[in-house]
Design a protein that fits this description.
The protein is of the alpha+beta class and 307 residues long. The protein has five helices and eleven strands.
């Protein structure tokens, strides 16, 4: 009987040791200012070091550098890579001038018959700088019968005019200069086509990134979001409309590339304007808050208002 009791006591001692010693070991580590060790297999990183599942920071737009006039100086560009010609050069006074301009169109008196107008006569046509309304350089061609704007792209210009057509009555010719003016469509070499394909990939990526950044910056402004989304939804059809007549476009895709880049620049410019607006609004709110009268928190009670 005694031996049985001794055996039971021995088992209880062993069980107590098994249950108590690990707690003692942990207690010895809990010194003042110490942190309890994490169980094996768990991360030791604190909440502040853990990467969130969803990034909270706003996406940044692609930083694009707009092309300068140097990319088009001395290049004879054709409308849709096929018709007419425009030559832009730096004048002696450092201004920009159009030294050659041929506009192709249709005869007014006999619609459907082709015609061409040589606009530049004795002197170059000055092109006045009009800022960067879409993130890229813009110039205005002051032609009395047919003024239009020129947006500078890389080795090309995007011409816009409203209304689209204009008449040169003396030449019996109606022209519509709007569209992309670039290199002749048949002049692209195979290695250039491959390079353009790589550029298009980068341009599409920049376009998507700038669109997402702009939508994020718009925040909860429903009207701004509606406008941005509407313009982006219509961009694809607009690009097709601009480039469908460019010679050899289905082979080289030069027009689609430049128009996509122009859109990415425009989104970047809109993002920067909206960010400045929001930043200014935030500063204004902080300034108003700073000027707001403070509550009287002193121990002395306020005097009662007269009745």
């Amino acid at each position: 009987m005694t031996s049985v009791r001794q055996c039971l006591q021995g088992l209880l001692v062993v069980l107590f040791a098994v249950l108590w010693l690990p707690g003692l070991a942990r207690a010895q580590l809990l010194l003042p200012g110490a942190v309890q060790a994490a169980p094996p297999g768990t991360s030791t990183a604190g909440p502040q070091n853990r990467r969130p599942l969803v990034a909270s920071a706003k996406p940044n737009p692609a930083v694009l550098r707009p092309p300068s006039e140097d990319t088009i100086f001395g290049l004879e560009l054709a409308q849709d890579g096929n018709a007419g010609a425009i030559l832009v050069e730096r004048a002696t006074d450092k201004s920009v001038a159009i030294t050659k301009l041929s506009l192709a169109g249709q005869t007014i008196s006999h619609p459907g018959e082709p015609c061409q107008v040589e606009v530049v006569a004795d002197a170059p046509i000055p092109a006045s700088f009009a800022g960067r309304p879409r993130g890229i350089l813009r110039y205005l061609a002051d032609i009395p019968a047919c003024p239009f704007s020129i947006d500078i792209l890389d080795g090309a210009v995007l011409v816009e005019r409203s209304p689209p057509s204009c008449d040169f009555n003396a030449a019996d010719c109606r022209v519509a200069p709007a569209g992309l003016w670039g290199p002749p469509g048949q002049d692209f070499r195979p290695d250039q086509v491959n390079s353009l394909e790589r550029e298009r990939s980068h341009a599409e990526t920049a376009l998507r990134l700038n669109f997402r950044s702009l939508m994020k910056e718009a925040g909860k402004d429903r009207e701004a979001i509606r406008k941005i989304a509407s313009e982006q939804a219509g961009f694809s059809s607009e690009r097709v409309e601009i480039c469908r007549r460019y010679k050899g476009e289905d082979v080289h895709g030069f027009c689609a590339l430049r128009v996509t880049q122009a859109r990415a620049f425009a989104l970047q410019a809109t993002y920067e304007e909206l960010a400045k607006l929001h930043q200014g609004s935030g500063k204004s709110t902080m300034k108003k808050a700073a000027m707001k009268p403070k509550l009287n928190t002193s121990a002395e009670p306020l005097a009662p208002l007269p009745r």
